[in-house]
Amino acid sequence: MAFLKDQIERCGCDTLVVDLGIVGPPVFEPDLSRRTVAAAAGERIDALAAAGDRGRAVAAMTRGAEEVVPELHASGRVQAVIGIGGSAGTTMSTAAMRALPMGVPKLMISTIAGGDVSSLVGLKDIVMIPSIVDVSGLNRISRHVFAQAAAAIAAMAQADEITAGDRPLVAASMFGNTTQCVEAARQRLEAAGFEVLVFHATGTGGRTMEDLVASGFIAGVLDVTTTELADELAGGVMSAGPHRLGAAARAGIPAVVAPGCLDMVNFWTPDSIPETYRGRCFYRHNPNVTLMRTTPAENLELGRRLAERVNSSSGPVAVYLPLKGISVVSAPGQPFAWPAADESLFRAIREALRPDIPLFEMDLGINDPAFAEAVADGLLQFLGCARGPARG
């Protein structure tokens, strides 16, 4: 740790060391003591050490780190965070990093960085660097890794930050099957002075978009690819979980919603499809992704769920229905064309949607230019005035 601190300072940055240790005295005096970290979690460090319960101690120091590190950033004392450790050190450090806003540089040197670290990274922009050798003293390998990591975090800290003076941000959800719609809408929104962040609706993309919306960065949401709801319902591989469509609703952020790609559930190669779905209608999207057509019964439930989540909105929101196809492959003449299934979806939305929420039914496919223009203009109207359009 002393070596890493020295290397960072050689790169021209100041350092602030937070001690997450539990037993044994620190080799050098940290800037924020382990006693302070434990106290932030409502614990006494002496009691944690004396109890001899590693799991309890790590959990307590994790909670403390989640409190003190964001406070240090909010007070302007730190602009970037770097951690080093094995599984316990990684758990504590990345928990603190996940508590920081997007855009704050975050780097973790870890003995477990080469494995599945999705639970440690979560939805945040954390860079994981494998330590190669164990974090136990210094040697020719660890010195090289630590020195490079120090240079990396110093450069990240000195990079330009996201500024509040940029154009207002709009978040948009997209799939390959709704690309034409989102790209056309994006151009219209950008011409009106907004910057559009597009998220691929692959589960992780939806959760990331929801997290960013909840963080307060986003002025409006163009959520025209809600396909992750279908994966949540049917056990597909791209579910975004039960909180999808929730962030904008809770925050009162203007949103336009469409049931894009609710005609499909995503699986990997055909051998990944559950036996219970054998005999269903499938489409090979690419060598690694297989799509399953949703049924009328599934679409009834999907329409109900979409409406239920939209109904919780405290801000301006509208729903647009593309009656001539909710994806490329469900347009007339395409492999997933199934009018009865689509009508089940539309009927459920009509019946379950709050009466005061604008609902626009358009005799268009989702990728028709006129539909893209309509959803973009609907969101622009919300962003430019207090009231949205009347129900159509």
Q: Can you characterise this structure?
A:
The protein has helices at residues 2-10, 34-40, 45-51, 54-74, 87-98, 118-121, 140-158, 179-191, 204-214, 228-234, 247-251, 296-311, 339-352, 369-384, and strands at 81-85, 106-110, 126-130, 169-174, 195-200, 218-223, 255-257, 264-267, 282-286, 289-293, 317-322, 359-362. The protein starts with a helix and ends in an 8-residue tail after the last helix. The protein has a six-stranded parallel sheet with strand order 5-4-6-7-11-12, sandwiched between helices. 41% of the residues lie in helices and 15% in strands. The chain has 14 helices and twelve strands. By secondary structure, it is an alpha/beta fold.
Key traits:
15% strand; three-stranded parallel beta sheet; 392 residues; single chain; six-stranded parallel beta sheet; alpha/beta; disordered C terminus
Judged by helices, strands and strand pairing, the structural class is alpha/beta
Order of helices and strands: HHHHEHEHEHEHEHEHHEEEEHEHEH
Query: Main beta sheet: strand number and arrangement?
Result: 6 strands, parallel
Query: Which segments are poorly predicted (pLDDT under 50) over 5 or more consecutive residues?
Result: 385-392
How many whole angstroms does the radius of gyration measure? 25 Å
Strand order of the largest sheet: 5-4-6-7-11-12
Q: What general outline do the C-alpha atoms trace?
A: elongated
Count of DSSP strands: 12
